[in-house]
Amino acid sequence: MRKILLSLITIVVVSAAVIKGTQALFSDTETSTGNTFAASTLDLTVDSTTNGQNTVKFTVANMKPTDTQTGIYTLNNIGSLAGYLDLESISVTNNENTWLEPGIQAGDVTDGIGELQDLVDLTVFIDTDHDGVVDGGETVIYNGKAGSIAANYDVNQLIGAGATTYLTVIADWPSQTNDNRAMGDDMTVNMTFELGQTSGQ
To answer: In this model, does residue 164 exceed pLDDT 50?
Structure first.
């Protein structure tokens, strides 16, 4: 009896294997090959200069009270991704150059330390219409004495891919009673334009 049961079990297993091996059910396959990922670009140029080149906007000699100098920066995003503009690493340095008698009489008591940054006003703004004048609705980033400008400003001005934004700097020396203090001085203003992927970056 035991041999008969073992034979039956063997027959059932073999039969099942044969049936399974001969089945032909419907099926279909599709493919997804060649998936690629390309990084975008964020690339800022100033006044259409070559990437990485420094842009000198002002070279002013013999500046005097009542003079106004205006420089308009053309900021181009030549990348494929929109970015946000900020101003970074702003610095103002002053040189006395010559300690003259008119300056001493006007109150210049610091030989070797220039005073021009305390007399010249800087206005920095997003110049939407590219006319060099602050108009209603335009974003003023800074307006005050050159020596009091901050080192960084999160301007967060959006510049689209392939788009252009204009930033204007006005250096104005209004007539003041102690202007003689800066006679013979010079001042250097440095700034860095940064285009970031996110605002406040």
So the answer is: yes
